[in-house]
Amino acid sequence: MELNILRRMCTRYFQVVKSHGHFSIQVNLQQRRNPLLGIPVRCLSTSNVCHEQTGRTGKTNRRFQLPPGMEGTKEPPFMNRMRKGNKSVPPARSKGAFQKYQEQKDKQDWSKRFKIPKIFYERQVEIFLFVFSVVGFGYSYYYIQKKIREKQLELVKQSAVEEQPVLIGGDWELVNQDGKLVSNKDFVGKWCIVYFGFTHCPDICPDEIEKIIEVTDILERTPGMPKMIPMFVTVDPDRDSPEIVKQYLEEFSPKMVGLTGTWDQLKVILREFKVYFSKGPVDEDGDYIVDHSIITFLMDPEGRYAAHFPRSKTNIDIATAIEKKVKLYKPPSSRH
User: What are the CB-based long-range contacts (under 8 Å, 24+) for 203-207?
Assistant: First the structure.
């Protein structure tokens, strides 16, 4: 019977707590004697329930009254905390291991320690454009500097190759267009532009001679440039006598120096300048074409090789290259 009463009481208690959120109950332990066994036992007894209208619509305050004879007794502390309107704070519970772990993790989490300012949300487009501009400028600067370093490295390699001695040029003796014997020592201290050809050449030699004259005129008008001596050396001494060479060069410019001589004399200078030549077949009129290297050489004031220019180079290209060579040239007195 006591168990049935306790079961009904607990069922009713949870129904009231679910509907109203509060309830107070008084449970007493009483000692009774079992009529069958004749021994004292402890059982549960409950007080009568009284219903009291609170005056609020749809809500009822339900509470247990104390048994008769216990109206002046003080309710247990846990009963006071369960009554409606009681603001007493229950004792704080100790933190569990998981809660302590979570708090320590939150302290170490940088995303929770540092909040993103509001301005980053309001001006996302401006910030993105600014970052993009900075990155683009940095990449452009890096790319330009990389190209400059590559160009400088290429120039250093070219200068290193150019500084290597080139076995072109040497001692020689020839006859000029006035019939006077001259040698390489007569041109020491002067910049010379040397071209090998022959007077009976139909088109290539005249074009190259005109180009050399134009280069000489350009350099003469350039401030700080020394005087250049253009030289024409024939590869056909059988037909190119000093008189014919002089008459041929007067059609271009009096600045041009013509050189000819015997085969023995010409073979020396052709060998020193590594010039290829070959006499072609002779026709019925006794004319023939000489096949030769179409290269223009630049010799420095010491008679040494400075540069060479193929037929594909224009007068501007040759003049610009000669100007650079002249500025980079160091006389023997300034060398260490």
Answer: 204/294, 204/311, 206/252
Alpha-carbon distance of 174 to 258, in angstroms, equals 10
Give CA–CA dist 199/239, Å, rounded. Answer: 8
Nearest-Å Rg of the Cα atoms of the chain is 59
DSSP element (H, E) containing 231: strand 228-234
Residue 66, C-beta contacts closer than 8 angstroms, at least 6 positions apart: 26, 47, 73
Closest CA to 220 of 299, 317, 134, 322: 322
CA-based nearest residue to 230, from 251, 262, 208:
208
Task: Say if CB 86 and CB 80 are below 8 A apart.
Answer: yes
Q: Looking at this protein, which amino acid is placed at residue 82?
A: M
Residue 194 CB neighbours (<10 A): 24
- Report residue 160 as tokens: 């290193």
Q: How far apart are CA 63 and CA 151, in angstroms?
A: 98
Give me the sign of the Cα torsion angle 110, 113, 114, 115.
Answer: positive
- Band the pLDDT of 294: cuts 50, 70, 90: very high
Question: Can you tell me the distance from the alpha carbon of 245 to that of 243, in angstroms, rounded to the nearest whole number?
Answer: 5
Cβ 193 vs Cβ 229: under 8 Å:
yes
CA proximity to 197, closest of 108, 113, 289: 289
What pLDDT, in 10s, does the model give residues 192-228?
999 999 999 988 999 999 999 999 999 999 998 999 9
Cβ–Cβ < 8 Å for 235, 266: yes
Maximum separation of any 2 CA atoms in the chain, in Å: 167
At 75, give phi and psi (nearest 5°).
-70, 150
Q: 263 is written with which tokens?
A: 């085969």
